[in-house]
Specification:
Number of helices: 7
Strand content: 5-15%
Largest sheet: 3 strands, mixed
Bound molecules: zinc ion
Number of domains: 1
Helix content: 55-70%
Strand order of the largest sheet: 1-3-2
């Protein structure tokens, strides 16, 4: 694998973020906001990322940048789906249809951000591509898993059945229960 060109990534995105007056806060802590590695706050126009893992943060930054781009294009501006989902994770209660709608919306937003991250990862050799795709699919599927089971799994065994490309949000609904057994075993 080629050497990661992190400087190239920063030279590519920072001028754009500066022009948009988006601030980047890099924290040496393991997580930012609970157990996230990165966070985009559209209200404050701030990206916050954990730089705890030197091999990881460039792709996390690329992912959050993907969220900035989608908001800039006027997509996924409504925070309600995220509120519905986090309320469900906190209380276990929700309207099933509203929750499903919220999860599909979040998955679509995350998929788009992962597409941006993946193309930047390719452009600047940020990571192993297959490994990244596996983790991205994993992450997007976790939302569906949480919807079905009421908790956010820590790890997953989902990679065993994951193809070598990003999966669309609706396709996640077709994932068979057998692949979930691994998640339940390893969750929490
Ligand atoms: Zn995201």
């Amino acid at each position: 694998m080629a050497k990661p060109d992190v400087v190239g990534l920063l030279a590519h995105i920072i001028p754009q973020l500066e022009a948009l007056k988006v601030k980047i806060i890099m924290r040496p802590t393991e997580f930012v906001y609970g157990d996230s590695l990165g966070y985009w706050d559209p209200g404050l126009s701030v990206i916050e990322i954990s730089i705890h893992d030197p091999g990881m943060w460039p792709t996390v930054l690329a992912h959050e940048y993907g969220h900035v781009l989608q908001n800039l294009a006027g997509r996924f501006l409504d925070q309600a789906p995220w509120d519905v989902f986090s309320e469900f994770l906190k209380t276990g209660k929700s309207d099933a249809r509203a929750l499903k709608r919220a999860v599909r919306c979040i998955q679509a937003a995350e998929l788009e951000a992962e597409r941006t991250a993946l193309s930047l990862a390719r452009m600047f050799s940020l990571c192993d591509e297959e490994d990244y795709i596996r983790k991205a699919n994993d992450y997007i599927f976790k939302h569906e898993f949480a919807r079905r089971h009421g908790f956010w799994p820590k790890e997953s065994g989902f990679q065993a059945t994951t193809p070598k490309k990003l999966i669309s949000a609706s396709a996640f609904a077709q994932i068979p229960r057998e692949s979930e057994v691994l998640w339940l075993d390893r969750g929490r």
